[in-house]
Amino acid sequence: MSATRLLRAAKPIGRSLVALNNTGRQRFATSALRRNPNTGSGESPKQASVWSYPGVMAVAATAGLFGWGMSEIRHGSLPKAMLFDSMHSYPRYASMREMEQALREIRQEVGGTEDIISTDPDDLHAHGYSEWSTSNPEGLPVAVAYPRSTEQVSTIARICHKYRVPIIPYSGGSSLEGNFSAPFGGISVDFAYMDKIVQFNKNDMDVVVQPSIGWQDLNEQLANVESGLFFPIDPGPSAKIGGMIGTNCSGTNAVKYGTMKDWVINLTVVLADGTVIKTRRRPRKSSAGYNLNGLFVGSEGTLGLVTEATLKLTVIPEEFSVAVVTFPSIRDAASAAAEVMQTGIPVAAMEIMDEVQMKVVNMGGATAPRVWKELPTLFFKFSGTKAGVKENIGLVQKITKANKGSNFEFAKDAREQKLLWSARKESLWSMLALRKEGEEVWSTDVAVPFSRLADIIEVSKKEMDDLGLFASILGHIGDGNFHESIIYNRRDKAEVNKVETCVKNMVKRALEMEGTCTGEHSIGWGKKESLLWEVGPDTLGVMRAIKAALDPNWIMNPGKIFDRQG
């Protein structure tokens, strides 16, 4: 039996047994677990299904099949499946009996009236598969845990470490590279109940939060108390702080405010064996010891589980505005953007969308009745004092005009700001809305020195056109980061191969230009090969050594960033 067939067989068996356990009981409100990408909202899940012996056996049966399959792969009885890249290099994970015992011990030690463990089939699927992700390896978690505190997370980790049960952190579920997939089964730790502001220090301009609070929710709560402060990192609307830390995300504001790493003061982290550490104290600066913040930010849950974060806040600017301008070509737009940066004009955001993406927005109709010119377009945000914003708009207008820009529009009030920025805000959702039956959107990113952005975009666009792919480009042009979104038929193997070739070539071009394989999506499951191309085996060896020191059993989000052995 092949590895892929083995795991396909495991899923229906496990689901059937779990479904038997859940008969007659209220099931999870899984629609609430799948966060609405347009609003970022989602109610907390209902109380988990009551755990019983049949439920333990359902999980154990599935885990046993996974464990047996991995053993067969390691010992050479089964061919290595493409989806299970280098699984032979991983340690032995929990057996059927050990998984059963681990789940029983977690439930016993946590205690209380609420069961924090779920084995609902839909719940497992929501925590192992993502329609947003370009990579969805076979396999699902065998249970989902919903801790309420750092102490409960520590208990889960300690017991999983004891029995070698994989742990996969989950917060917003909006990642794009298979970051929360569960190729080895294990327990998904969903922080849905840990979504609070723990402490707000207005005078110090910082805030302590739990991992499942969304950045939009955080800013809304800060606005409700009229703090005059906000958190400036703005990735996708459904993103949560835990995932933002794990991927070192950024967003449209990065050209002014930087990335997630720049806004983290300290972290509370649960290590693989259940040990709880705090990376540092609360001053804005410190030279004391290793920079552990830098170690955990961007580690994608492979080194520990973040249960609290102290974040910097900044003052809400006095004035905002937005401007939009079109160009005859991507190169003209990129030249204008480069001149804006080189002149030192302090824009708050500078985004680019190609003519295909502008057409997609019109086709999607989300910004109707506004119809956009289907040309390469730059979008600018300005913030600061009223006089400063006015001056910067004028300077940008002169630069864009000198680089063949036309149709320059700037917002005169908040309503116009929202209207002019709407095309950028609706870009991804407009692309998703065009999917037909059987189609998916492959969205991925690279980053290069911004002087090379026009070069890589032009070559990448030509390749996509030559391959006959329907694809659009948008990017954070101020920091050299751009995204390809490609619609393809997942049932057409030839088309899938074209997309994979196109993406790999884009990554290789970025690396040839001294860029990176990902500016903000991170590595996850999908870009492990790209990371090796980028940093080489020796640097990857250092990363593996750090991982092995903190997680010797290799249970923390295994299979992400790199494999255990090259």
Automatic annotation (TrEMBL):
<keyword id="KW-0560">Oxidoreductase</keyword>
<feature type="domain" description="FAD-binding PCMH-type">
    <location>
        <begin position="137"/>
        <end position="316"/>
    </location>
</feature>
<dbReference type="GO" id="GO:0008720">
    <property type="term" value="F:D-lactate dehydrogenase (NAD+) activity"/>
</dbReference>
<dbReference type="InterPro" id="IPR016164">
    <property type="entry name" value="FAD-linked_Oxase-like_C"/>
</dbReference>
<protein>
    <recommendedName>
        <fullName>D-lactate dehydrogenase (cytochrome)</fullName>
        <ecNumber>1.1.2.4</ecNumber>
    </recommendedName>
</protein>
<keyword id="KW-0809">Transit peptide</keyword>
<dbReference type="Pfam" id="PF01565">
    <property type="entry name" value="FAD_binding_4"/>
</dbReference>
<dbReference type="GO" id="GO:0071949">
    <property type="term" value="F:FAD binding"/>
</dbReference>
<dbReference type="InterPro" id="IPR006094">
    <property type="entry name" value="Oxid_FAD_bind_N"/>
</dbReference>
<dbReference type="InterPro" id="IPR004113">
    <property type="entry name" value="FAD-bd_oxidored_4_C"/>
</dbReference>
<dbReference type="InterPro" id="IPR016171">
    <property type="entry name" value="Vanillyl_alc_oxidase_C-sub2"/>
</dbReference>
<keyword id="KW-0274">FAD</keyword>
<comment type="similarity">
    <text>Belongs to the FAD-binding oxidoreductase/transferase type 4 family.</text>
</comment>
<dbReference type="InterPro" id="IPR016166">
    <property type="entry name" value="FAD-bd_PCMH"/>
</dbReference>
<dbReference type="Pfam" id="PF02913">
    <property type="entry name" value="FAD-oxidase_C"/>
</dbReference>
<dbReference type="InterPro" id="IPR016169">
    <property type="entry name" value="FAD-bd_PCMH_sub2"/>
</dbReference>
<keyword id="KW-0285">Flavoprotein</keyword>
<dbReference type="GO" id="GO:1903457">
    <property type="term" value="P:lactate catabolic process"/>
</dbReference>
<dbReference type="InterPro" id="IPR036318">
    <property type="entry name" value="FAD-bd_PCMH-like_sf"/>
</dbReference>
<dbReference type="GO" id="GO:0005739">
    <property type="term" value="C:mitochondrion"/>
</dbReference>
<dbReference type="GO" id="GO:0004458">
    <property type="term" value="F:D-lactate dehydrogenase (cytochrome) activity"/>
</dbReference>
<keyword id="KW-0496">Mitochondrion</keyword>
